[in-house]
Amino acid sequence: MKRILEEIIEYQYAVVKHKKLSMPVEVLKAFPEFSRPTRSLKSAVVNSELGIISEFKRRSPSKEAIHLKADVMEIAQAYEQMGATGISILTNQRYFGGSLEDLQLAKSVCDLPLLRKDFMVDVYQVYEAKAYGADAILLIANALPAQKLEELAILAHNLGLEVLYEIHEAEEIHKLSESLIDLIGVNNRNLQTFEVSLQQGLDMLPHLPTDLLKISESGIQDESTIKRLIEQGFNGVLVGEFFMKQHKYSKS
Ligand SMILES: O=C(O)c1ccccc1NCC(=O)[C@H](O)[C@H](O)COP(=O)(O)O
């Protein structure tokens, strides 16, 4: 059976191929947001107490339905009011029920830095991220060869976007030059088994560069865990399902 990451990456290549034809990069460059300055997620994390990046996602491969009817504008505003440091928007339609329009709508109602959380495989998607209002993009270490990671990170920086570089193992830090990384995301979820181990993420900390910001991602289900992760050395956390479900049940 194909691993989920491989399946998603294959799908992404097909989507990008189609999109390049329907909306060329020149058209993306004409979007109003393309020429606006970006907001720094890195500075927001440095200047915050807990560095909470709240995630918007309607569904996921590990959990299926989370909050299928979620309204991105309502939730982005709620996240901002609750004191989030930044917002991560899953823009992948097939696997997470999101879209680039979600990014655009979130941008229209809140002032927080926005991360386009998607599976980036091509420079086209970096242009898209900028055109639809992202301030930062995600690059997943084990999704791409080193050369491609570098190419996407350089373009992101040229466009004023920051890079959240996601790793699952400490050694992956060496795959991309530190100068191209704005934040390191340590993903606690094994993308093959979907098992979550916060301890595995914590164990990576001593092996990561001290001068880079480190974000613990996935499987965080309560506030005391957020505090514990920060006390133990992370600069921030990325929380999706827990916050989405809190919002869903507070509405019903
Ligand atoms: O969330 C998944 O099931 C998933 C499966 C395969 C690839 C990526 C996946 N999630 C993306 C993420 O990194 C998470 O949405 C993010 O870290 C937040 O996780 P959580 O707080 O557990 O919702």
Strand order in the largest sheet: 1-4-5-6-7-8-9-10
Q: How many structurally independent domains?
A: 1
| Number of discrete helical segments | 11
CATH fold name, please?
TIM Barrel
CATH evolutionary superfamily? Aldolase class I
Which distinct ligands sit in these coordinates? the ligand O=C(O)c1ccccc1NCC(=O)[C@H](O)[C@H](O)COP(=O)(O)O
Describe this structure in words.
The protein is of the alpha/beta class and 252 residues long. Strands 1-4-5-6-7-8-9-10 form an eight-stranded parallel beta barrel, surrounded by seven helices. Strands 2-3 form a two-stranded antiparallel sheet. The chain contains eleven helices and ten strands. Helix 4 (72-81) crosses helix 6. It has a single domain, classed as Aldolase class I (TIM Barrel, Alpha-Beta Barrel). The site of the ligand O=C(O)c1ccccc1NCC(=O)[C@H](O)[C@H](O)COP(=O)(O)O has 17 residues, from strand 10 and helix 11.
List the helices and strands and how they pair.
Layout (H helix, E strand, L loop, with lengths): L3 H19 L2 H5 L11 H6 L5 E5 L2 E2 L3 E2 L6 H10 L4 E5 L2 H4 L3 H10 L4 E4 L5 H9 L4 E5 L5 H13 L3 E6 L15 E5 L10 H7 L8 E5 L5 H9 L4 E4 L1 H11 L1
Helix pairs in contact: 4-6, 7-8
The site of ligand LARABZUK has 17 residues, from strand 10 and helix 11.
